[in-house]
């Protein structure tokens, strides 16, 4: 069974800092990996999707990388802003293909 | 309008009642999913459906049932609700080709069972 772990569980940074969120998974046979953002009590918003053949994806201030061999992905957020405060979830689509396995998330607080 | 719509958004009910959560989507996706989210446990898959005639149990299907009424509609039922089914429930869809597999989520249905 694919296990997905996110470290740290919580992170607080001052505005303007660059930061990295980590995601690790136990089975490297994956189709893709997806990063989501969740605001309190809200749904999940897809941020970036990396296919298994890709090494990274970028969207604005966000950059996600994937290293299948080591079972790791990172989400890099540049020049953080208070509006980035949310929980960030990593999810892995394994080769069984039917659903995502989620990490428990990293709760990010960016202080002004 | 949202691409994935869940109703109701909030529901409070009593133990033993039957509850239905509904999901509809306008993305034209074949694949639909129901997840539940609990603090500290993350999201766990309850049921998934790859098309109208294909229904599959997920990780935590006990106490739940589903119905795929049409390509665009997927409902989740709790036949006899119990307090530990209090959670935030999410419906999701993914693209039909599985070439990307990107998931799109609804806003969630918060269920409280007293």
What would your notes on this structure say?
The complex is a heterodimer of chains A (112) and B (114). Chain A is mainly β and 112 residues long. Chain A is built from no helices and 11 strands. The model of chain A has no long low-confidence stretch (mean pLDDT 92). Chain B contains no helices and 11 strands. In chain B, the strands form 2 sheets. In chain B, strands 2, 4, 5, 6, 9, 10 and 11 form a 7-stranded mixed beta sheet that branches. Chain B is globular. The interface between A and B is medium-sized, with 23 and 25 residues.
Average residue pLDDT of chain A: 92
The general outline of chain A is globular
**Which regions of chain B contain 5 or more consecutive residues with pLDDT less than 50?**
none
| Strand proportion of chain B | over 45%
Strand count of chain A: 11
**End-to-end Cα distance of chain A:** 41 Å
Topology:
The complex is a heterodimer of chains A (112) and B (114).
Chain A: E1 4-7, E2 10-14, E3 19-25, E4 30-38, E5 44-51, E6 56-59, E7 62-67, E8 72-77, E9 86-94, E10 100-102, E11 106-111
Parallel strand pairs in A: 2-11
Antiparallel strand pairs in A: 1-3, 3-8, 4-5, 4-9, 6-7, 7-8, 9-10, 9-11
Chain B: E1 4-7, E2 10-13, E3 19-25, E4 31-38, E5 42-51, E6 54-57, E7 64-70, E8 73-78, E9 87-94, E10 103-105, E11 109-113
Parallel strand pairs in B: 2-11
Antiparallel strand pairs in B: 1-3, 3-8, 4-5, 4-9, 5-6, 7-8, 9-10, 9-11
């Amino acid at each position: 069974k694919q296990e997905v772990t996110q470290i740290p569980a919580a992170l607080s940074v001052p505005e303007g800092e660059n930061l990295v969120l980590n995601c690790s998974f136990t089975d490297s046979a994956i189709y893709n990996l997806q990063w989501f953002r969740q605001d309190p009590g809200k749904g999940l918003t897809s941020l970036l999707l990396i296919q298994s053949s890709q090494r990274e994806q970028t969207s604005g201030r966000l950059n996600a990388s994937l290293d299948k061999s080591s079972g790791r992905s990172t989400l890099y957020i540049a020049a953080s802003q208070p509006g980035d405060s949310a929980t960030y979830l990593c999810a892995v689509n394994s080769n069984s293909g039917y659903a995502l396995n989620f990490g428990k998330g990293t709760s990010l607080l960016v202080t002004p | 309008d949202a691409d994935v719509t869940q109703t109701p958004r909030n529901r409070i009910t009593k133990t033993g009642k039957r509850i239905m959560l509904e999901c509809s989507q306008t993305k034209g996706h074949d694949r639909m999913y129901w997840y539940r989210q609990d603090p500290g446990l993350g999201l766990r898959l309850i049921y998934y459906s790859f098309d109208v005639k294909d229904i599959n149990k997920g990780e935590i299907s006990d106490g739940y049932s589903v119905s795929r009424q049409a390509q665009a509609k997927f409902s989740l039922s709790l036949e006899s609700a119990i307090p530990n089914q209090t959670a935030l429930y999410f419906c999701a869809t993914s693209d039909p080709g599985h070439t990307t597999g990107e998931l799109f989520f609804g806003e969630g249905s918060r269920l409280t069972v007293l």
